[in-house]
Amino acid sequence: MLTALKAFDFDCFTWIEHLDLSSGNIKSIKPLSFHGLLFLRNLTLYQNKIRHVSGRTWSGLHSLKVLDLGFNFIESINFALWIAIPKLEELYLDHNAISVVGSRAFHSLQNLRVLHLHHNDIKTLDISVLTPDHSHQTLSLTLSQNQVQYEHKICKAVVIGVRKSKHVEWDEKERVRPGLASLGLLWRPAPVCVKGHQRSCSAGKK
Fold first, then answer.
1. What is the pLDDT of residues 20-71, one digit of tens each?
2. pLDDT tens for residues 77-100?
3. Any idea which fold 9-198 has?
4. 103 class by beta-carbon count within 10 Å (0-12 exposed, 13-18 middle, 19+ buried)
5. Do residues 37 and 18 lie in contact, with contact meaning Cβ atoms separated by under 8 Å?
6. What's the first-to-final CA gap in the chain, in angstroms?
7. What ranges do the domains of the chain cover?
8. pTM for the predicted model, two decimal places
9. What backbone phi and psi angles, to 5 degrees, belong to 159?
10. In what order do the strands lie in the sheet with 90-92?
11. Contact (Cβ atoms closer than 8 angstroms) between residue 176 and residue 186
């Protein structure tokens, strides 16, 4: 069974647009593993055993629009991870072990419209993780099943960014500072199956 991806593993498949490596045993991805996949638009690494990725992991994926890293063991994310894939529109990081979201973590993703962070270990979230450009577009952001606590200024900024999202709903089970309930800032889990993006509805947390 495949457990690691090495540099240039897919350089003979430069024409492909979709690559599904889900539900496997991949533990590590070396830099330049996907180099040469110039036309790849959808990369699915859902439900593996990945703990670490770097910015060089995505080197060469200039056309990538959808990246699914859900149901893995990733612990932290930062700005440098996404510099190589600025055209990304959908990013799935749900059901990982993320506890650290670095400052300006998604600033390089100015086209981002779907961001799933639910079912992680996130306890604090600063609005600086989102680029200012996100406040002028529709962004579907899911954060449920974390322990996130927000500050007032952060809440107002996030509301601007997701005000058109269908996933923005009040959920009394989430934690929030007193006095902020009227802002309706808490997100219910989005469906695991997303239209136009195939995922198993029955997959469970590993």
1. 999 999 999 999 999 999 999 999 999 999 999 999 999 999 999 999 999 9
2. 999 999 999 999 999 999 999 999
3. 3.80.10
4. exposed
5. no
6. 18
7. 9-198
8. 0.75
9. -60, -40
10. 18-20, 42-44, 66-68, 90-92, 114-116, 140-142
11. yes
